[in-house]
Write a structure and sequence with these properties.
Number of helices: 5
Helix content: 40-55%
Shape: elongated
Mean pLDDT: 80
Largest sheet: 3 strands, antiparallel
Number of strands: 3
Low-confidence stretches: 1-15
């Protein structure tokens, strides 16, 4: 059994947050905001994608090589597919270095999603 550790995601300052949509308490979502937000949550709704996202977020240095996170119980092509979906949803950024791709969590997008769900605001 592996040891799990809770790691906090970096919280950007207010000026760093790129809002995906207004807070849910601000009013009804526009059709465009609903589509964009649903795509992000849909990308995270798959258990393999959520594990990959967690592995990247908790990796030392805030980035992870695909070679370090591929052990999630599915084949390498399936891992690539899930990482592509997370990238397309705007939740991850990637950087190719030689033959390897390194992934980072897009903190401003994650912070904006959290702000959208904040019922206090």
């Amino acid at each position: 059994m592996s040891k799990s550790e809770v790691v906090e995601l970096p919280v950007p300052q207010d000026g760093d947050v790129v809002p995906c949509c207004p807070p849910i308490t601000a009013g009804e979502l526009s059709p465009a905001d609903a589509v964009k937000t649903a795509a992000m949550f849909k990308a995270l709704s798959d258990p393999v994608r959520l594990r990959l996202f967690s592995k990247i977020a908790s990796h030392p240095g805030g980035e992870a090589c695909v070679c370090d996170i591929a052990d999630v119980g599915v084949s390498q092509p399936t891992v690539s597919h899930h990482l592509k979906k997370l990238r397309e949803a705007g939740l991850l950024t990637s950087d190719r270095r030689g033959t390897w791709v390194y992934y980072q969590v897009a903190p401003s997008v994650v912070a904006a999603m959290a702000a959208m769900l904040d019922l206090r605001g």
